[in-house]
Design brief:
The protein is of the alpha/beta class and 785 residues long. The N and C termini lie far apart (72 Å). Mean pLDDT is 83; it is low at 1-60 and 88-123.
């Protein structure tokens, strides 16, 4: 204003008089809060006023008036700019709605965990600053204490202890200051042992009389979803129960048909073991832990030979009595059940019981690599003496159980309708230190850490959703039912899923079961995280040393027993599950009553909290990238190479296909269209303006739906829930196409040309549909058929 008066007086030939000044300050809001508004006060001289200055302007001559008017406009612009900048500086620290003006810049943080008000703007925080902020708030002691209290005892679904854990997790989300915290309730069918008529295993004489009642562990150690009923017959040893193991039995002339089979824990899931035995027409399955699969130091530490290992035997996920439907109380369920439920009974037994049974087998000696370490056991294939017979009775009953998933979320600022989901199992039939304790501890600590970051200025671009799942020991029931309940919207909203289950089963090697979309991002992050047990090395250097192949040993495909599997194979959401494991030996206490904090920590030589913290650092950096980057860091072009590998497996059969008038050319063409669409999207992204929010959103939507594009639209979720053509299960998959094609050489009489033509056509068009969808709008699609 002083400048304006000076210019007016100069234009009018006047000399400046008394000075005037302007004051800018924050006005107090209601209750004494700052940033209630901005007050501008002008202190004027007694002789010159603004009105007088304006009057002087009017009385000037035409030439002087034009000159003065120019000075007036320029001065007004200058004053407005200065006032705006001063007001912005004054308000930026206390106006929540103004935070978006800062883009990626973050507020200054204090050591106490609360936003620090400062009249001087703090430095911007970029990727390195975000990592430093995350590591600053992450606490190892919090992880340790949570693992301890979660694993104090068994906490199966519907139990009082499980209810207490549910309230504890919900209370934690609330106390951390998350934007929202809530529970989602489902009513599911679980299978429990009958307390009145317990399961049993007897040895019979030739007349069917009981010779010996063989011990089963406590009633809580069983196989959920086993077929109820009895199985009577001889006994055949089938190693791990893999398909190749049953093939070896066939080559040796040993037929499991009409007998029970005994298999050892490991290599594949319980459900796959039972399914393979069922396919071989066995009558029942006994599953035991062989000492060969237990590290030597743990056997010396006193691992009980009388412990059995529990595990569900449903070849699927979710509530098997409502396949494809969410188990909400208001849902009217059709009278169907999952085709993955076994038709034969199965039960776990201890190593000591297995030794008593295997010692009575005769027949051919087992192959050398089938022999375990049960004391003085010859490991023969059986079935042995016709007089040696077993009777297994399984009396499990279906019970309707209310389960509760617990959620908490931080809402994103720019893409609040896009979710990055992180989850962990909360239930366990045993103490569950590794099964549910570590995952729950990591989930809560990450929620607390991100809460501290958010309250200190970290702005999430996308919503971060924390999930604590119930009834996961029964086959990812809680997570799958949630997916089924919100399937129609999740493909529009879910960016990625990170599983914390089975995160620490050792400390020697690191595995990631993941979607190809996340592989390159994981590799980049592992190079920035320190190894927990090799000083001076990154985690990437640890997991790839010595000569360990990244693509085949560290990065592994999603398996059905993985808690991340249904997100990708069923819902079309890219997912990953991380695990620290022992070299070539599984953690022996998983799914046993010995899965305690003391045993897990002892296996890691007292370093459990440190290893768990390393997992938290990997996951935390992954979450920062997925929630903060303008463009989603998913490698949408990765499926081009994956498709090429799968199609190449079909190539050896080109001559057989050609003789039937068929060709793989159209499948290669679809893969080529996908690769070109990915490259075009990459060029569009590189040539776009980073700050163009409309383009950012359009690109992100196309990227986040890539996984969903590979769900076959030609099968029903209620009948074939795992619809993904690459990771799923069923006749629509490329794996099923290859298996059918192999029959041309292995068993030509079983090859169904009409069915194969349909398989090939639908698989090809599913791939072409993925390419079309990645291209963008319909006018951008260029089909090169």
């Amino acid at each position: 204003m002083e400048t304006l008066r000076f210019l007016l007086r100069r234009a009018g030939g006047e000399r400046p008089g008394r000075r005037s000044y302007t004051i800018y300050r924050n006005m107090e809001g209601p209750g004494g809060e700052g940033a209630g508004g901005l007050e501008l006060k002008v202190a004027e001289g007694e002789e010159q006023t603004l009105a007088g200055d304006m009057a002087a302007l009017v009385t000037l001559g035409p030439r002087d008036r034009t000159k003065a008017l120019t000075y007036l406009v320029l001065s007004a612009l200058l004053i407005f700019t200065v006032a705006f900048l001063l007001g912005y500086v004054a308000l930026r620290g206390s106006c929540p709605s103004c935070a978006g003006l800062r883009g990626d810049l973050l507020a200054v943080v204090s050591d106490e965990g609360a936003a620090e008000e400062s009249p001087v703007p703090g430095p911007p925080l970029y990727w390195a600053d975000l990592k430093e902020m995350f590591q600053k708030y992450l606490r190892e002691d919090s992880i340790e204490s949570t693992i301890r209290w979660v694993s104090e005892g068994p906490h199966p679904p519907g139990s009082p202890r499980m209810d207490a854990l549910t309230h504890k997790v919900l209370e934690s989300f609330t106390s951390y200051g998350l934007d929202r915290a809530w529970t989602d309730t489902h009513y599911v069918g679980l299978q429990r042992p009958d307390r009145v008529n317990p399961n049993f295993l007897h040895q019979l004489d030739p007349q069917g009389n009981v010779l010996e009642k063989l011990p089963l562990e406590d009633p809580e150690i069983y196989c959920p979803y086993s077929a109820p009923g009895n199985a009577t017959g001889g006994l055949v040893y089938a190693n791990y129960g893999r398909q190749e193991d049953f093939d070896v039995l066939g080559q040796q002339g040993v037929n499991p048909q009409g007998h029970l089979v005994i298999v050892r824990v490991g290599q594949i899931s319980f459900a796959e073991k039972v399914a393979n035995a069922d396919a071989a027409q066995a009558r029942g399955v006994l599953i035991y832990p062989d000492p060969w699969d237990i590290p030597q130091d743990l056997r010396k530490a006193g691992l009980s030979q009388d412990r059995a290992v529990y595990g569900h035997v449903h070849m699927g996920t979710g509530d098997p009595y409502t396949p494809g439907f969410p188990s909400f109380n208001h849902t009217q369920f059709p009278p169907i059940q999952s085709s993955g439920l076994p038709r034969i009974p199965a039960h776990p037994i201890s190593a000591s019981t297995a030794a008593r049974l295997l010692s009575k087998l005769t027949g051919l000696a087992a192959p050398r690599d089938w022999k375990g370490r049960l004391a003085e056991i010859p490991y023969r294939l059986g079935p042995g003496d016709p007089g040696f017979r077993l009777h297994l009775q399984v009396n499990n009953v279906k019970t309707s159980t209310m389960i509760s998933n617990v959620f908490g979320s931080f809402e994103g600022r720019f893409e609040p309708d896009h979710y990055v989901i992180i989850g962990a199992q909360r239930d366990s039939l045993g103490p569950g230190a590794a099964g549910s304790g570590v995952g729950t501890a990591l989930l809560l600590e990450l929620a607390r850490t991100f809460s501290a970051m958010v309250h200190n200025g970290f702005q999430l671009r996308r919503t971060l959703l924390f999930a604590s799942w119930d009834a996961e020991d029964f086959g990812q029931v809680g997570s799958t039912e949630w997916l089924e309940g919100y399937l129609s919207m999740l493909h529009l909203k879910a960016v990625a899923y990170i599983s914390l289950d089975n995160a620490v089963l050792g400390d020697d090697k690191f595995h990631a079961k993941t979607s190809p979309l996340l592989t390159s991002l994981i590799e980049n992050i592992l190079k920035q995280v320190d190894s927990p047990n090799r000083s001076g090395q990154s985690l990437y250097e640890q997991v790839t040393f010595p000569d360990r192949r990244w693509a085949s040993e560290v990065i592994q495909p999603l398996a059905m027993e993985s808690s991340a599997y249904p997100f990708t194979a069923f819902a079309g959401v890219p997912a990953v599950e991380f695990s620290f494991v022992e070299d070539a030996r599984p953690y022996p206490f998983l799914h046993t009553q010995d899965d305690t904090y003391e045993n897990l920590n002892g296996m890691l030589f007292g370093r459990l909290p440190a290893v768990a913290k390393s997992v938290a650092e990997v996951v935390g950096q992954l979450l920062i990238r997925l929630t903060h980057d303008h463009l989603l860091p998913l490698d949408f072009g990765a499926y081009g190479d994956v498709l090429l590998q799968h199609i190449a497996e079909l190539n050896p059969y080109s001559s057989e296909l050609k003789s039937r008038g068929l060709t793989l050319q159209w499948m290669y063409s679809a893969r080529g269209d996908y690769t070109r669409a990915a490259e075009k999207l990459r060029r569009d992204i590189y040539s776009s303006e980073e700050r163009d929010e409309r383009l950012n959103r359009l690109h992100n939507v196309r990227i986040m739906r890539v996984e969903f594009y590979f769900l076959s639209p030609y099968v029903a979720a209620t009948e074939t829930p795992f619809r993904h053509v690459l990771h799923g299960r069923g006749p629509h998959t490329l794996r099923a196409l290859l298996d059918h094609l192999r029959l041309l050489r292995a068993a030509p009489g079983r090859f169904d040309e009409g069915h194969f033509r349909r398989q090939l056509a639908l698989a090809t068009w599913t791939l072409q549909g993925a390419a079309n969808a990645l291209s963008g709008e319909v006018w951008d699609v260029d089909i090169n058929f």
